[in-house]
Amino acid sequence: MEFTRNNNNRQLLSKIATNDRHGENTPYFDGWKAYDSNPFHPTQNPDGVIQMGLAENQLCVDLIEKWILENPDASICTAEGVDRFRDIAIFQDYHGLEEFREGVAKFMGRVGGNRVKFDPNRIVMSGGATGANETVMFCLADPGDAFLVPSPCYAAFARDLRWRTGLEIVPVDCKSSNNFRITRAALEEAYEKAQSSNINVKGVIIANPSNPLGTVLDKETMRSLVSFINDKSIHLVCDEIYAATVFGSPRFISIAEIIQDMDCNRDLIHIVYSLSKDMGLPGFRVGIVYSFNDDVMNCARKMSSFGLVSSQTQFLLASMLNDEEFVGNFLRESSKRLAKRHNVFTKGLERVGISSLKSNAGLFFWMDMRPLLKEQTVQAELELWRVIINKVKLNVSPGSSFQCSEPGWFRVCFANMDDETVKVALERIREFVHQGKEKDGVSEKSKHWRKQNLRLSFSSSRLYNESLMSPHMISPHSPIPQSPLVRART
Amino acid sequence: MVAISKIATGNGHGENSPYFDGWKAYETNPFHPKDRPDGVIQMGLAENQLCFNFIKKWVMEHPEASLCSAQGVAKFKETALFQDYHGMPEFRQAVAKFMGKVRGDRVKFDPDRVVMSGGATGAHEMVAFCLADPGEAFLVPTPYYPGFDRDLRWRTGVELVPVVCESSNDFKITRNALETAYEKAKEANLRVKGLLITNPSNPLGTILDRETLKGIVKFINEKNIHLIGDEIYAATVFMEPEFVSISEIIEEVECNRDLIHIVYSLSKDMGFPGFRVGIVYSYNDAVVSCARKMSSFGLVSSQTQHLIASMLSDDGFVDSFIVESKDRLFKRHKYFTWSLSQVGIGSLKSNAGLFIWMDLRKLLKEKTFEAEMDLWRVIINEVKLNVSPGSSFHCNEPGWFRVCFANMDDHTMEVALLRIRTFMLKHNEAMVPQKLCRRSSLKLSLSRRRDGFMSPSIMSPQSPLVRAIN
After folding, report:
1. Residue A474 catalytic?
2. Tally: H helices and E strands in chain A
3. Is there a catalytic annotation at residue B228?
4. Interchain CB distance below 8 Å, A283 and B60
5. pLDDT tens-place string over residues A227-237
6. ipTM of the complex
7. Is B73 touching A (CB cutoff 8 A)?
8. Which residues belong to any copy of the Aminotransferase class I/classII large domain (chain A) (predicted)?
9. Does this model's pTM top 0.95?
10. CB under 8 Å to A36, separation ≥6 — which residues?
């Protein structure tokens, strides 16, 4: 018997398995190839591509390592902790370890400036924030329903919110002209547009602090949001996973705090949280769903069976997060280090005439490369991007991958490298900018680009390599390990 | 009333069955050898607790397996940052090796096909998402694990069609039963996309023989439908006949490998349900690729991957563990079934699993499921044992109960057996072999409390579906 594999597969597999909604077939992935085939290493590969496309928080891991060595009973594998091994290894109760929930609730409260108390009994686990976002969607909406999502937004929302749930995303375009604020008008417009196209909007999902902008929402905007969803009786999901990465003012305000002072139906309010960014532990898959709606909480808890946090990890984190002294110190130090790193980068870029959106949170900044675009198109943005990857050898993320409606913006991550690498990255950018200036004969004193004079000519043939232009499949046997969607989250 | 999803408001989570009433009794009065010697003994949880001292010893001798020890902390940073959905290579290699060893090294598993998931619970859901569209169906032989109703159907919209197996031939999965189920699905306008078998079986504790397996592979091949083999109890086969995996059969029978998928986990074989180590192993490249992308929704904690990688790549430990585990399960099973037979209680002849399929048909007032539930309440309230009634496993015949034996120490086992003995002597003398009757002079008066157990109850934390899998 002959088996024709590909045709057979199309009929044999589900629609979900054969569609593109996992999001990995975008041209966006081409750039990762350059990094993977030539990753930077300070000594072994000093000319390699520096990774600035991964939103990882590596700045405070030393504090965690120190704590771990001082608290051996937090592990079920040490002499001090092994007596708990059995109880923990068999613990699969989807309510989660009580101490774990208490620790997380306390941490969330602390991160919100202790202005709100989070109830440990509302803490529901999930497979990372990736799993949390998907679970919340499964609880709130039916296939075909939609959520409004302000853009620019986290690239993988397209997968997490839509892929297996069958939901749709309706973007709410935010503009640089008002610093990408989420206005009531923009929300209303998106809502009306959806409704008139017979798309049933079930809610709004925001990330605060914002990925990719690195900004926090002010009180007014948040109140306006709550008022909007309350009026329409639709849900508000707040992804607050960068809450503790706020390193300057204004302070972070959790949605939990806003609803304390507002008349609003709490059954519409839900928070997604995680320790992947705030603590730099993405590998531990600690996702949290915190809903003010009892039915949603109960449903999400039942669904958590599909992605519980490993009890070994719950045990470790319960111990860590209940150590109030450690937590206080960690949060203070983390903010300090993020602020410093952010400052080094943004100031360094300013000195060569590159500006970025004013931000005070996140593990990245939103770099403004609009002056460098040949024309204000996504195509030009992607071309510039390829130059940055191949010539400047930095892997940054183009704004189009975040559904930004304006070309020319790039998200640049800064917390996933050591100080030496920072210097190298800045030096490369400086070089690149100066080369450009020299070619134009522009005076070094000039800080602003004149679009029409800008010509970037490069002899590198890798620039317009055909293979980089076309989308490609990621096969099971030749994976791109460093790609953002390979990581559960970027 | 705020509008939430249909999935959230429906009953697809499966926790609203009367089945859950019984758990309340255990919850409110759990057995403890010292603190609560009259409490209800938990025999409804398929957990493997027999080898922890063995594992603990290894853990103590290998501090580098932990990220938290002085020897292991150097790996902390890279591990804590590792969220690649391919999984740590050492982890995949160790799991692939373990799967091979559990099958007597008769088959080799490819580490590149090992895909992670949120426990076997997540693995099943993931496979369903990959293979079927909402409204399509899988065939599942009865009796089967109650969690399948949720795992395969709840969020996926996939249907399950039972393949009815009868006690008259030891619940064998016959070609006839398969064809009947397939036709039935067709009549109901359900497109069958696959067949899910659990081998070794939960709740039967039996393994599928080679002929049956070959027949199954031929069947799915002919119908061009998928075969999903849930082999999470593979290492719990403690006695002859030897376990035969689907992975072995496809080497012997010509078949389209794109139809073959295995679900695995360390929850039963190693007794680590808390660690959420689920595995999808597919022979279909597109499914591997898709499942891998989906695994982002339920990856194994890298901290746990690190521990497991270390443990399972220790060949000496693994070989000894497999042998030791089988030995302890064998002894426990033998003693338990023998003790039951002494008081006239039989069970399906089994050689695997963490439970036995107890035959209490003769104790039923009548051959109905209602009578089964009545008997069950008596067992919970009078005998004070939480066992699982066959109806919860979709068994087509009333009177069968699944009884777990690997989740307790020897003393608790003795107490459980004494209670059964006492109950049988007091109420069912006719069933007990004569020699035991004459010897015994036990007279116990048991209080009969029937209040409060008829009504459905709120989900309690120890209930089986609260545990991700049981």
Report:
1. no
2. 17, 13
3. no
4. no
5. 999 999 999 99
6. 0.91
7. yes
8. 50-429
9. no
10. A480, A481, A482, A483
